[in-house]
Amino acid sequence: MKREPRGYGSKLSLFGKRGEVVRAFLGTHLVRSAARFLHDCQLRHTTTPGQRFVTFSFDDGPDPESTPYLLDLLDKYRVAATFFLVGEQAARHPELVREIADRGHRLGNHTYHHADLWRSSTPDAIRDLRACSRLIDSLTGEMPQCWRPPYGHLTGPVMTWCRRQGIQTVLWDVLAPDASPRANARHMVSSLERRIRPGSIVAMRDSPVVVGQTTIALETLLPRLLLAGWELETLPRPTPLVRAA
Which residues are CB-contacts of 139 (< 8 A; sequence separation ≥ 6)? Predict the structure, then answer.
């Protein structure tokens, strides 16, 4: 299977910081608008009045040049996150896979080859998902219970297969502006603070390309959320799915 470049999408990143803002805006609001059509897909958690919790998730790892920094930062604030792992990366760095799990974070499937499902046949996509899940299971003793398609590219047959396997399809309702080396911590904080709401699932990258700015942003954002009474939770969470914003 042809391996796609890792990341949410590189074309908008060519336009610099403005492109990052546009990508984050579209990645948040278009996904929210499309939610009503995405059956069996989790975009955020349902909440009851007064509940304030959010899930942070990191895609594309593990990577020795970024994952340890994220883990140390999450440890510092005693919060847990969900890491959607690429199988190829996990095979290269099995010690990081075990470390993520040992530190109390949840592991999700991000396909073995970072496969674009819109360019893959259904059998190829399923083989890619199976390979990633089996690798994670072999390293941690636990099969991932959730998966996120690279680029957010979903297909009905693959979602149906995942549902039958008991694997929850997860997207996001907040996309961080962190897809390129031009990512800016101040813009990340501003964008995330405006868009996070109770039950949000935030998608960020576990990538050496942006980890410096990501950690700076989270050093600002995490204590603010905790001080304001927010709880940070992992996926999957046993609550009903939100199908529409």
Answer: 90, 94, 97, 98
